[in-house]
């Protein structure tokens, strides 16, 4: 069984998200965490999780949307975060790659999300794009929650060591299967098994051999198989490992036995 720890069902076209959930179940994906990037998508994620078995939500303001993270919006976000099927806060963090929100607004929003995650005892989901040192500095300054994950990990082995020293989880997406991403595979090899999880980041980053097509949660087994190969484990062993880690990260219930 598998868990997709990060996807965006709200960004899929039309009825595609429902069909994708069905295909995911057929592929052995027992749980999906759908992640908001602004107030509207966060509310939609909570609604989807409320009415869909095996789907959980995370609510947050993406750093590229940090201009939206006003006090008023953050109050609404905190209200959404209190829902029992909300298991994470984010994605939040810093993005120095795109010309999005001003850095000061990203940093303020990031700190607010960290504090909310600690207040509500939810996992913190980190977006880190070309901002490793600054992300780590803020996490250390704010004393990050025990359950923190670097989504779509893009750092090197030095960042792996920093995350491991602090007990932060590291999540790998379909790009770990790309031929032109040896540095991501090198990082994945260095991650301690107890801190390793997998995601799709759907509808983005579809793994090989589906690269270039819209991604979906049913493809997380391909990423898990690649992680297993990198750690000299079978796909089945890596599925057990990453699934158990995902349950700890998001405090997910054990599946009901048939």
Q: Strand pairing plus helix content: what structural class?
A: alpha/beta
Give the N-terminus to C-terminus distance in angstroms.
14 Å
Please, what is the average pLDDT?
96
Query: How big is the Rg?
Result: 17 Å
Plain-language structure description:
The structure is a single chain. By secondary structure, this protein is α/β, with parallel strands linked by helices. The chain has a single domain, classed as Metal-dependent hydrolases (TIM Barrel). Helices cover 43% and strands 17% of the residues. The protein contains 9 helices and 8 strands. Strands 1-2-3-4-5-6-7-8 form an 8-stranded parallel beta sheet. Helix 2 (39-51) runs parallel beside helix 3 (71-81). The model has no long low-confidence stretch (mean pLDDT 96).
Task: For the structure shown, list the relevant keywords.
alpha/beta, eight-stranded parallel β-sheet, single chain, TIM Barrel, 9 helices, 258 residues
Secondary structure layout plus pairing:
Layout lengths: L1 E6 L8 H11 L2 E7 L3 H13 L3 E5 L11 H11 L4 E10 L7 H18 L2 E7 L2 H11 L5 E3 L6 H10 L2 E4 L9 H9 L5 E3 L21 H11 L4 H16 L8
Parallel strand pairs: 1-2, 2-3, 3-4, 4-5, 5-6, 6-7, 7-8
TL;DR of this structure?
By secondary structure, this protein is an alpha/beta fold.
């Amino acid at each position: 069984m598998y868990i997709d720890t990060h996807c965006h069902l709200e960004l899929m076209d039309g009825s595609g998200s429902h069909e994708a959930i069905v295909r995911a179940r057929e592929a052995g994906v027992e749980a999906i965490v759908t992640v908001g990037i602004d107030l509207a998508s966060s509310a939609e994620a909570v609604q989807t999780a409320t009415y869909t078995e095996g789907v959980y939500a995370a609510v947050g303001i993406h750093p590229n949307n940090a201009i939206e993270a006003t006090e008023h919006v953050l109050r609404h976000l905190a209200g959404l975060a209190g829902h029992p099927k909300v298991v994470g806060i984010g994605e939040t963090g810093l993005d120095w790659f795109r010309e999005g929100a001003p850095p000061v607004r990203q940093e303020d929003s990031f700190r607010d999300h960290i504090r909310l995650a600690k207040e509500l005892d939810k996992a913190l989901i980190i977006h880190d794009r070309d901002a490793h040192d600054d992300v780590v500095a803020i996490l250390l300054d704010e004393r990050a929650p025990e359950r923190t994950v670097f989504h779509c990990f893009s750092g090197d082995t030095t960042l792996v060591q920093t995350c491991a020293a602090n007990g932060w989880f590291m999540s790998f997406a379909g790009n770990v299967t790309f031929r032109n991403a040896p540095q991501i595979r090198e990082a994945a090899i260095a991650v301690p098994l107890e801190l390793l999880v997998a995601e799709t980041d759907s509808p983005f980053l579809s793994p090989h051999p589906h690269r270039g097509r819209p991604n979906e949660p049913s493809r997380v087994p391909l990423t898990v198989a690649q992680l297993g190969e990198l750690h000299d484990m079978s796909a089945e062993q890596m599925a057990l490992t990453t699934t158990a880690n995902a349950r700890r990260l998001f405090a997910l219930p054990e599946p009901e036995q048939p």
